């Protein structure tokens, strides 16, 4: 059983952070909130998402008891496993869900899960949607998060980051993110032109001095930058020829999003 | 002879209500104002339009006298008929006319008909357009309005109606409009999802309680919803598996628009 | 050596006035500022552009001395000629440059030329672009401005001119600009419709009375009208079946733009 109420703007912000990486995926509902971990179809980018139950105005959750009469026959291995974890998995088309939420004005959203029918009942004011869920077993398995250690951390205003990405798209296909001493930089080279953003420590919210840089596909960074349009600051975790982990908070700190992106091999 | 002045916004609102159903059509000009009745090319939707002469800031109208010297030879049967009715028919490309009016800022529009040359002279400030009219005999005949009796009438805020239509377009191809007791509802079912708007009597401006519902093509309802963008309230006249008549006022009550839409057979 | 600072809005306005006619071209940098003269690929329209050095917040310019050690070998005829004129030619892709400037917010732009590498270094706040210049010898030769005498001059509000052009585009492919006594007019005839703007002397900023008119391609006039979006007034220099010269100022009077457009032969 899952029943919840949440601010529409907060829910949109959350789903938007997912659609930056994946079109569909499975939420894990537990007593403590909502979780998701998914990789993009090309296996280059990963999103880890977590929303605490206190981000909701109402949050009711209960896993149906194993062996209850109504469900005995239907119990599959997957369900058994899910129960043992005290969680419910629901598969969703996030792109469609975001489109539906986009109609809803500024209301609160009520969500109610019909596990038997695999439907999510979504109410916004006088509008009620019944959304068919996707079969979780038809969706890709949840990826493992690799163990990573990042020597350098940069906290930057989201708007500055996004503007630079938009500028970089006019120049090239890849982008270097790096730290050189006390300067954070983003650099793109096209066939003809070169773009460089350089920010000193005092132009950033935080910077670990160091000497690292890695090259990334601009397509993915650009997609990520669309998942954080309502976020004030983002944290970039960097290394030398190393993955990028980009963290930010949603739902006024009651939700966390992490994007992980594999580096490209630099041709020098 | 026809010569008139009218507020540009009012005229745009009127023409926009027509282009929701037809691209072209014929106005009947009479002593008392402007009228039009036309069906869409697929014969599924009809628009009836009426604009009183007092919606105009200036309205001069006169049918040329039969048998006057200048016209004797040119008198055709059609003209004779038109005269006998004390009216002038003019054929127009409404889509083009709306585009032209869209350039005009916030001025007043002056209209002047040149019957001989079949041109409509349109002046907005310093800009003057001379528009060639369409030959009325080349346009479809004016349809007859079927006699209908509607057991149920609902008056609803236009914005609520339009928002629901936009939401429904994301879900399915058809929409049910119905009244169940004291609730008015709109319902769309797609392959995967279902959308329902339910409004109680106190969320509506008016409602006749009853039990009726009919299914309509969403394409046509959606087109209609684009013809009423400046209107505050609309009246829905409903029956059981029956046509929909959607009425609203334009020109501050000095004009009336009615859309009539045939129902679809529901597969159950 | 060329190094300059200029307001970003002013520079955008200047480049925009060029892209109305050409995608690329060569600036001539001199002690007194920036100049350009170019024709469109179809040889129908020409732009003459001039920006005084005092439009810049900083303007440093020096032609490298002939026979200096580093350059002796590289000296080509073109360079020799350029030196003799005390000017530097730089070839630019204006469309790309405008796109890059569009990212820059409201900052000041710093420009620095690297003649040896044929790069223009462009800094806006923390963003630095290195733009590869085009080889001036690969670009079309600078056209000669024909000697013209215009009997009639009209000064008109840019917005009125642009609105009429937008309206004319809905009607036809050509436009007549003319003066008839004390009235300036613009007139377009399509297959079906006719549009005419007529402005009396008191609706204009200035008018030389006369009797002239010429026909022009609307495509070119329309392109020109996109190059003056921040300009308040424009001057139209007209004759009978004669080219149009359209003048306006940029950079608060410290820059001048002239468009010259060949007339079309009128079929009557």
Automatic annotation (TrEMBL), chains A, B, C:
<comment type="similarity">
    <text>Belongs to the PCNA family.</text>
</comment>
<dbReference type="GO" id="GO:0006275">
    <property type="term" value="P:regulation of DNA replication"/>
</dbReference>
<protein>
    <recommendedName>
        <fullName>DNA polymerase sliding clamp</fullName>
    </recommendedName>
</protein>
<feature type="domain" description="Proliferating cell nuclear antigen PCNA C-terminal">
    <location>
        <begin position="144"/>
        <end position="263"/>
    </location>
</feature>
<dbReference type="InterPro" id="IPR022659">
    <property type="entry name" value="Pr_cel_nuc_antig_CS"/>
</dbReference>
<comment type="function">
    <text>Sliding clamp subunit. Responsible for tethering the catalytic subunit of DNA polymerase to DNA during high-speed replication.</text>
</comment>
<keyword id="KW-0235">DNA replication</keyword>
<dbReference type="InterPro" id="IPR022649">
    <property type="entry name" value="Pr_cel_nuc_antig_C"/>
</dbReference>
<dbReference type="Pfam" id="PF00705">
    <property type="entry name" value="PCNA_N"/>
</dbReference>
<dbReference type="InterPro" id="IPR046938">
    <property type="entry name" value="DNA_clamp_sf"/>
</dbReference>
<feature type="domain" description="Proliferating cell nuclear antigen PCNA N-terminal">
    <location>
        <begin position="1"/>
        <end position="59"/>
    </location>
</feature>
<keyword id="KW-0238">DNA-binding</keyword>
<dbReference type="Pfam" id="PF02747">
    <property type="entry name" value="PCNA_C"/>
</dbReference>
<dbReference type="GO" id="GO:0030337">
    <property type="term" value="F:DNA polymerase processivity factor activity"/>
</dbReference>
<dbReference type="InterPro" id="IPR022648">
    <property type="entry name" value="Pr_cel_nuc_antig_N"/>
</dbReference>
<dbReference type="GO" id="GO:0003677">
    <property type="term" value="F:DNA binding"/>
</dbReference>
<comment type="function">
    <text>Sliding clamp subunit that acts as a moving platform for DNA processing. Responsible for tethering the catalytic subunit of DNA polymerase and other proteins to DNA during high-speed replication.</text>
</comment>
<dbReference type="GO" id="GO:0006272">
    <property type="term" value="P:leading strand elongation"/>
</dbReference>
<comment type="subunit">
    <text>Homotrimer. The subunits circularize to form a toroid; DNA passes through its center. Replication factor C (RFC) is required to load the toroid on the DNA.</text>
</comment>
<dbReference type="InterPro" id="IPR000730">
    <property type="entry name" value="Pr_cel_nuc_antig"/>
</dbReference>
């Amino acid at each position: 059983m899952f029943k919840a109420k949440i601010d529409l703007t907060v829910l949109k912000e959350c789903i938007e952070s997912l659609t930056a990486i994946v079109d569909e995926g499975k939420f894990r509902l537990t007593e403590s909130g909502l979780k998701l971990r998914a990789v993009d179809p090309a296996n280059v980018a990963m999103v880890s998402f977590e929303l605490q139950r206190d981000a909701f105005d109402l949050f009711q959750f209960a896993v149906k008891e194993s062996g209850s009469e109504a469900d005995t026959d239907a119990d599959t291995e997957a369900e058994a496993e899910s129960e043992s974890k005290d969680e419910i998995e629901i598969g969703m088309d996030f792109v469609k869900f975001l489109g539906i939420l986009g109609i809803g004005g500024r209301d609160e959203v009520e969500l109610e899960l019909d596990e038997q029918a695999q439907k999510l009942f979504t109410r916004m004011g006088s509008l009620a949607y019944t959304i068919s869920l996707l079969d979780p077993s038809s969706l890709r398995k949840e990826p493992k998060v690799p163990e990573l250690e990042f020597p350098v951390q940069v906290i930057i205003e989201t708007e500055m980051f996004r503007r630079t990405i938009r500028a970089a798209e006019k120049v090239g296909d890849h982008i270097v993110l790096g730290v050189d001493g006390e300067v954070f930089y983003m650099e793109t080279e096209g066939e003809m032109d070169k773009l460089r953003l350089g920010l000193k420590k005092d132009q950033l919210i935080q910077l670990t001095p160091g000497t690292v840089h890695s090259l990334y596909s601009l397509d993915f960074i650009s997609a990520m930058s669309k998942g954080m349009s309502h976020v004030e600051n983002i944290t970039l975790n960097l290394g030398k020829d190393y993955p990028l982990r980009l963290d930010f908070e949603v739902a006024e700190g009651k939700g966390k999003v992490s994007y992980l992106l594999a580096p490209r091999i630099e041709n020098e």
